[in-house]
Specification:
- The chain is of the alpha/beta class and 97 residues long.
- The protein is built from two helices and six strands.
- The chain has a three-stranded mixed β-sheet. A three-stranded mixed β-sheet has the order 3-5-6, with no helix packed on it.
- Helix 1 runs parallel beside helix 2.
Length: 97
Amino acid sequence: LVVGTEARFPDAPTERGTKHLKELIKLKKDGYRAVVFFLIQHPLGESFAPNWENDSVFSKTLNDAYENGVEILVYKCDNRLDGIDLVPESVDFDLGR
């Protein structure tokens, strides 16, 4: 889902996504490196934000994960008819409402 140039996740409520974030928080607290990765595939997506309107629970949990040291990586890909390339620079994200 892209609004303007901002990619947002999730496009529908995701209990499973929230569960995975909670597992990452626990792993981080247990001393492991924990990373959540978002890949923007829409050509207009230039930044990332959680979709507070569609799933405030996931969005809050993503904020909690970040505050607890879970890394958030956001990248974009270039989709073409003959292949897909990962854009090497990371994309900015904003966790606020």
